[in-house]
Structure formats: C-alpha cells, structure tokens
Amino acid sequence: MLKAENISKTFYGEGTPARALDSVSIAVDEGEFVSIVGRSGSGKTTLLHILSTLQTPDSGELTYGGTDLGRISERELNMMRHHDFAVIFQFHHLLPYLTVLENTLLPFMNTLRPVSSGHVEEAKQCLKRVGLDDKWNRLPSMLSGGEQQRVAIARALVKKARYLFADEPTGSLDKTTGKEILTLLQELNREGLAVVMVTHDHQYAAYADTIVEMEDGAVKSVHTE
After folding, report:
1. Measured between alpha carbons, how far is 194 from 90 in angstroms, rounded to an integer?
2. Is residue 82 pLDDT above 90, yes or no?
3. Interatomic CA distance for residues 215 and 221, integer angstroms
4. Tens of pLDDT, residues 190-225
5. pTM
6. Where are the beta strands (DSSP E) in the chain?
7. Containing H/E element for 81?
8. Do β-strands 67-68 and 163-167 pair in parallel, antiparallel, or remain unpaired?
9. Fold of 2-224
C-alpha cells in the first residue's frame, strides 16, 4: 500500500507563499485505480507529485509497503522508483531522435552496457500490448498524439511497475483518443497495475474505482464506485 498521512506543502515565490496541500491523507492499495480531480490550483497535481516522489512534502509522512520514504537513502529511493513506480504526463516526454522501441527501452539505458535482448523482446511485447507492435521502428514525429501517449505507457509497462502515476494523460488529446487511453489504463488496472491519475474531467475520473476530489489544498470528498 502507498499511504500519505497529514501531507502539507507550501511553495514560496516572490509574492505571498502558496499553500498547495494542507494536511492531506490518502491511501492507494495495490491494484486500485484512483482519480484525483479538482479545479486548477486545488492541489491535485502537487499531491500526485508527492505520491510519486517527484516532490517532497514539507511535513507529514509518505509510506510504501510500510516503509517511511522520508527515512530511506536517496539510493534506496531511486531503486524503488526504478522498479515500482512509473509516471506519465500530459506531454509525452519522448526523445524525438529515438525510435518508438528505443523510447520504450529508456529505463534500461542508464548504464554503458547495451540493452539486453531480453529487455528488447519485453519492450516489443509491451508495445504490442498498447497496440503499437507495427510501429516500433518509427520516430515520435511520425505518430499521433494518442500513439505517443501509448509509447509513454509502454515505457512504464516495460519496467513492470506496480504503480502508474498519470498527470493529465488525456489533456492534450481529443475526446475520442482520450477515451481510448482511459480504456487502456482501465484494462491495465484490471490486470493488476495500480493507477493514480490526475484529471479535471469528471467523465474521465469515472473510469476509476475511487474518486478523490480536491479543493483549496484539501480532500473535499472521496467516492468509491
């Protein structure tokens, strides 16, 4: 289980400090699909970034499998991120000069050693799973927006992550393509992948098992389908 308790976060700039989260508590079970919804500035994206360890809270506790993530070393945290967590964004963050297959294999390109044939085969299987088995040798510029997002999902799958964090994954897509991506995420969730998704669209949020509504940096309500 991934659990946040009494999480607070304030951002400091040139003006008045902005309180993004105020004593927020949330738990996400393995295999659960959670949508976090709310208006712009409600704190939903900050909460996702803290749950995925992209940001650290000012106070409160984030635990994963009973381990306090604020008390482990950076090396241990990086290992956990690499093996168990994956993040996709509204904009796909694909490298334009790498092929679809190479972009999918990026998690294994952090050393000087060549990527193993086993990982290459796994990447091809992941691309097949997201419907891109015939496009693995193309560059991102040759794909539609929805196909690029599918590559980002395949890159998460090849890691065998247990939790997928999706930050407005349909924000740059049309309605039809957005629904296709949400249907894919729902299918992957039913196969055991936990999904935590931020969205402003309540129709997309309804694909989840649990809907967490944020307002002014706090949890306003929690609905379980």
Report:
1. 18
2. no
3. 9
4. 989 999 999 988 888 999 999 999 999 999 989 887
5. 0.88
6. 2-11, 18-28, 33-37, 59-64, 67-68, 85-89, 163-167, 194-199, 210-215, 218-224
7. helix 74-84
8. unpaired
9. Rossmann fold (3.40.50)
